[in-house]
Amino acid sequence: MKLTPKRQRKSDDSGLIPMINVVFLLLIFFMVAGVIESTPPLDVSLPESADAQEPVSQRILFVSADGLLALDGEQVSEGSLAVLVAQPVNDAIDQHTIAASAQDSDVSFTGSSSVVTDDVDIHVAPDSELPLGIQADATITMKRLKQVMDILRSAGIAEVELLTTRVPAVSN
Amino acid sequence: MQLEASRRPRRAISLTPLIDVVFILLLFFMLTTQFSNRQGISISVLGDSAESLTMDIERLRINLQADGTVVVNNLPPIAIVSILDSPEVVSARDNALLAVVDSEEDVDLQAFTQLMDLLARMGFDNVAVQGLR
After folding, report:
1. Shared-domain flag, residues A99 and A121
2. Which of A10, A78, A151, B117 has the fewest CB atoms below 10 angstroms from its CB?
């Protein structure tokens, strides 16, 4: 009886290499060209514009069609907006951390309260000078927008960026 | 003494698991990415009218009406798109005046955005919005 010779197992993957190349290219394209967006806290359909610029704002205030507000991904009340918008994004976290570390040092070095005070006094650098972005629904009235801007101005914000959806320019 | 280990034929690494991973990454990025079509209109926020009126600076005043017309410097109302040809607006642009936009309260944001968009197209880079009265 003659056994068939054991087949030489060769790697058959060589035919796949062009496909892998294409898939890698697609992968790189999507990684570079796309942005992963977090889901907006409020449902907002933006107004349309044709000739505005690329947006530069990083912190975004949402104003929904029924007038609700959301900042930093969370819905906020009108009353707390001025306070929240005045402090930098990471301020709340930083203050928490500093407070925690101050408590720690308070426990471990009782009596060195001056050091603790120094820790607390660490000034958290304010956000860069980028304007606050406003994503407001196209159907809200200017009355609402002015109310919001009034709050922002009372919080020391002098410049905002109204975010819009780009549409092709109408021939005019 | 001869070691036998080196004689073992080297097997090529299979590419299939790699392709699996790359496909999953590809799917992930294809499903999660969004191509941004956002634009931004920069606006200075002015205070109430009393504050801005006391400043004795020449400004272009544009008032957006609820019926979709605009009043430029208290002249008769014109359609929004007509500001592109309005001599007052053009000369204000050429003199780099600050444009102060006010609007009636029940104007919707789309009309306001259209006006700001037209001003951006004309080359105004300094547009302010009047706050509450």
Report:
1. yes
2. A10
